């Protein structure tokens, strides 16, 4: 069964997306040409409002992986993926109420040292560019390297010219394109398959609506608990303490605007999630009797969504181009966010420390040069990703496993004032070891099929192509941990890393001598004990561990510290940054 390839009108619609994005960069380059400070370029002068920041956050974290992967996930495993709406809510609450106040009030621009994390972000960005390009190329005939190079050039162009403001407003536009693409597919797909009632009936008969599975078995791939608990840790590690998120939030004109942006962003996350889940159900209704994946019409599950689009819009030139624009809107926003974040981190952590007396004009030019450098590196990494083959999925998983230990490290420093630098280092090493132990073991010894097998798919009405069944060889040595520790749901890797880091860090801190709270500026610690010990002032003060939260009013803007206070603040940052 062959579907129609891209035609001229599809390319026109897709090219229009790139043209608008580039135009936004030119607009802000002209508008802000007299504001040449690095602060204006990297964090928008801290004058952004909540609306565009909310759109930007949603667009950046709902990448093409979401557009292509989530409908495929629902198609194969059912609609339990919709439970992530609870995870998203918890993530936003923790980010807005726990992490954001500390970052915003302390005036921190970089949430981590670039030397420790830049390679991981560059690799991830390269994969985000390459993976959707490959999926769309194999189904639609869309030129692979043309899309990769165009993505890199356009993102680098508007990041370099317009800075953070261009990135944010372009993300807002791309968010609208993403939703428009989803809605178009939903309307057309639902109409062709007999309406929403028929789609719902097909999904019910195919067991795609068995959402609430309260099995506490941590080895099951997706249950209520793995998604809500494990999903919260996973997203908090990649969202709550992520450079891209914090950089956008601190660009807001006030902490109130930053928090409001996060909560408005939650509505955007829910919208994209619901659209993606319903696209998966519509796709199942369409292919319930002829699954293109098991029939070998496509070579990978991620190609299901573009195959579906090319199928249902075969008689409507230009509309497939809208969907490709929808998919690449997520890619553009993610790449732009990474380029801008990498430039900011490099400038703050390396350039300013090495050359503290740079003029504002020179600082701005260096910031723009860094954007160009990272744009080239991220695009080049897409070429490297093409050589990884099956390691691409492994690289994405490793990126997720890194988020848990980092989340544990930030939590240790922000919530527990008694933690010292020895505990922070020891905890981080322990968290990374545990997360990678479980993750690497799961790659070598995959979970039993009973824990992660897809729901039934039919090829009853397909004209099958000739194919050879691939043979799978099980490892000769099968250790005891293969059926327990190595079979944990992938969503728990982040939780393992986070809890391992926090618990180990606290133990080492108490053994080696906890930090003195009197030496820590209150702005760097979030007194969460106040929520649980409000009934006892003495107990609350005791749990402050010496940090004098009642000795000064914590303002909503970065405090003006004395030279000694600034030195203390820099020392404290090394515990959790």
From TrEMBL:
InterPro entries: Na/Glc_symporter_sf, Na/solute_symporter, Sodium:Solute_Symporter_SSF
Keyword Transmembrane: yes
Gene3D superfamilies reported in the protein's UniProt record: Sodium/glucose cotransporter (1.20.1730.10)
Keyword Cell membrane annotated: yes
Main location: membrane
Residue ranges crossing the lipid bilayer per the database entry: 6-30, 50-69, 81-100, 121-138, 144-161, 168-187, 222-241, 262-284, 322-343, 371-392, 398-416, 423-445, 490-511
Location of this chain's protein in the cell: Cell membrane
Stated name of the protein: Solute carrier family 5 member 12
């Amino acid at each position: 069964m062959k579907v129609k390839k891209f035609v001229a009108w599809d390319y026109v619609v897709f090219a229009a997306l790139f043209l608008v994005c580039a135009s936004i960069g030119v607009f802000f380059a002209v508008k802000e040409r007299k504001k040449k400070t690095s602060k204006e370029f990297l964090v928008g002068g801290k004058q952004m409002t909540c609306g565009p920041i909310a759109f930007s956050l949603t667009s950046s974290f709902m990448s093409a992986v979401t557009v292509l992967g989530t409908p495929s996930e629902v198609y194969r495993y059912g609609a339990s993926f919709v439970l992530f709406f609870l995870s998203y809510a918890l993530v936003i609450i923790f980010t807005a109420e726990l992490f954001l106040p500390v970052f915003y009030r302390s005036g921190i621009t970089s949430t981590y040292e670039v030397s420790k994390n830049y390679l991981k972000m560059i690799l991830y960005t390269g994969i985000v560019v390459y993976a959707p390009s490959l999926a769309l190329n194999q189904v639609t005939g869309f030129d692979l390297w043309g899309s990769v190079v165009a993505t890199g050039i356009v993102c680098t162009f508007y990041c370099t010219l317009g800075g953070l403001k261009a990135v944010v407003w372009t993300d807002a536009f791309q968010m609208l394109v993403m939703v428009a693409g989803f809605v178009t597919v939903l309307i057309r797909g639902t109409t062709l398959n007999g309406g929403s009632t028929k789609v719902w009936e097909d999904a019910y008969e195919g067991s795609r609506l068995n959402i609430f599975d309260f099995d506490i078995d941590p080895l099951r791939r997706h249950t209520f608990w793995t998604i809500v608990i494990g999903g919260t840790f996973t997203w908090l590690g990649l969202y709550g303490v992520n450079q891209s998120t914090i950089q956008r939030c601190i660009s807001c004109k006030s902490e109130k605007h930053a928090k409001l942006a996060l909560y408005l962003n939650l509505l955007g996350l829910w919208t994209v999630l619901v659209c993606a889940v319903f696209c998966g159900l519509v796709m199942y209704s369409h292919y319930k009797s002829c699954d293109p994946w098991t029939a070998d019409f496509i070579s990978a599950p991620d190609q299901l969504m573009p195959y579906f689009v090319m199928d249902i819009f075969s008689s409507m030139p230009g509309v497939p181009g809208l969907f490709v624009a929808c998919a690449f809107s997520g890619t553009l926003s993610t790449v732009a966010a990474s380029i801008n974040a990498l430039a900011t981190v490099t400038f703050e952590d390396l350039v300013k420390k090495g050359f503290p007396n740079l003029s504002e004009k020179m600082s701005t030019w260096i910031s723009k040069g860094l954007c160009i450098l990272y744009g080239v590196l991220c695009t080049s990494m897409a070429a490297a990703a093409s050589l990884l083959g099956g390691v691409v999925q492994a690289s994405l998983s490793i990126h997720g496993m890194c988020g848990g230990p980092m989340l544990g490290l930030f939590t240790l420093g922000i919530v527990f004032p008694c933690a010292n630098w020895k505990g922070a280092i020891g905890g981080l090493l322990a968290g990374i070891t545990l997360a990678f132990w479980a993750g690497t073991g799961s790659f070598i010894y995959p979970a039993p099929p009973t824990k992660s097998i897809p729901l039934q798919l039919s090829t009853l009405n397909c004209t099958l192509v000739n194919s050879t069944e691939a043979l799978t060889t099980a490892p000769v040595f099968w250790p005891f941990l293969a059926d327990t520790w190595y079979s944990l749901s992938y969503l728990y890797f982040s939780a393992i890393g986070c809890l391992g880091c926090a618990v180990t860090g606290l133990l080492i801190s108490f053994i080696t001598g906890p930090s003195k709270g009197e030496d820590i500026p209150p702005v760097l610690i979030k007194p969460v004990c106040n929520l649980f010990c409000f009934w006892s002032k003495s107990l609350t003060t005791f749990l402050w561990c010496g940090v004098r939260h009642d000795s000064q009013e914590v303002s909503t803007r970065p405090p003006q510290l004395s030279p000694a206070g600034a030195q203390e603040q820099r020392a404290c940052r090394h515990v959790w940054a």
